[in-house]
Amino acid sequence: MAAFSLNSLPFPPSKPRIVAECSESNGGLKPIVVRGNPPTFVSAPGRRIVAVGDLHGDLAQTRSALEMAGVLSSDDRALWTGGDTILVQLGDILDRGEDEIAILSLLKSLNLQAKSKGGAVFQVNGNHETMNVEGDFRYVDPGAFDECIDFLEYLNDCQDNWEDAFLSWINVSEGWKEERTSQSHWSPWNIVKRQKGVSARSSLFRPGGPLACELSHHPVVLQIDDWVFCHGGLLPHHVAYGVERMNTEVGDWMQGFVEDSDTPDIPFIAIRGYDSVVWNRLYSRESAQLKYQACQISSVVEETLQAMGAKGMVVGHTPQSDGVNCKYNCKVWCIDVGMSSGVLNSRPEVLEIVDNKARVLRNQRDYFNEIELMDYL
Questions:
Q1: Cα gap 22→111, rounded to integer Å
Q2: H helices within 158-293, ranges in order?
Q3: d(CA 188, CA 95)
Q4: 320: how many CB neighbours lie within 10 A of its CB?
């Protein structure tokens, strides 16, 4: 395909909107301006960006990663400490862990707080988000089914006030879990309880369900200034199709919205197939697993970034045995370290981008150096 640059073309016709105003504490930075719904193109000049990879239902590791990034208080009050920082979470919050809704609640609460400080929180949907909206619960932790049951009961206690229940769940979820575990334990033979959990989850995550609608507000591809963020990896044919078009189609599908049809069409190019945006592993696989030569993949990276008018891409999806790293002349950063106890239970790591330079943040207790610095440019 012929390469083109978004910098040489007008932005898509979506109306830009300001999501965070300037504050006295951010030195007069320009406001964060977003185009697209879900957010697709973000202008945030001068902001520090921190990116966190796959979380998979592990609230403790999530807190550790966010504290390391300097955006979450070290107590249990879920307070934003990042000032005008932009936090990007690369998807796969769901499955393999039991605190999924609590993590979603935490990130939404932090976003509201961040906006008042001139910052923002963006989430990118991964393959496990789209799988759950499709009703694929193969990787759901038993405790996550229980959390769905508990949350629906809490929603009822909140008189079905969704915003109040969802935002406050991070503050009460631990108490509900402790009460539940003190009374009984999940058993594979408890068929009635399992059916109740599946039913609760289905009602929350089916297209048009309340949690599916929450996920619909998040893109599968996000560009912040010179950086592209997506779960699996963006390819040239995705750009040719239109990244805002993909985001809109996935959002509409999650909301259950489709004209003249009872069943929303699944946006195949974004969420189905080995080369879809959320499933693609071309950039993140270990070198020994690559089917193509590095120079060929590097050419694909260059073509994709040129088409987006970007300088770098950040992806998750594939756990990196050596931690956060960059590939293909440091044009692609792979930040899934498998931190969840349901995956590798590895040490959290965070990517920080300041003035177009990227570095990996690692915990001083686990490494000889508090921060391993790796320049992007």
A1: 15
A2: 162-183, 191-205, 210-216, 236-241, 243-254, 268-271
A3: 17
A4: 22
128 is catalytic: yes
Tokens matching residue 86: 């932009």
pLDDT for 10: 38
Q: Where are the beta strands (DSSP E) in the chain?
A: 17-20, 32-35, 41-43, 49-52, 86-89, 120-123, 221-224, 227-230, 312-315, 325-327, 332-334, 349-354, 357-362, 371-372
Any residues with CB less than 8 A from the CB of 184 and at least 6 apart, and which? none
d(CA 372, CA 358): 10
pLDDT tens per residue across span 357-376 = 999 999 865 543 434 433 33
Token pair for residue 136? 């694929």
Q: Report the Cα 122 to chain-centroid distance in Å.
A: 7
Confidence of residue 261 (pLDDT cuts 50, 70, 90): low
Q: What angle do CA 155, 156, 158 make, to 5 degrees?
A: 65
CA distance 341 to 143: 13
Selecting among 56, 128, 231, 317, the annotated active-site residue is 128
Burial class (CB in 10 A: 0-12, 13-18, 19+), 101: buried
Helix-, strand-, coil-residue percentages of the chain, each rounded to 5? 35, 15, 50
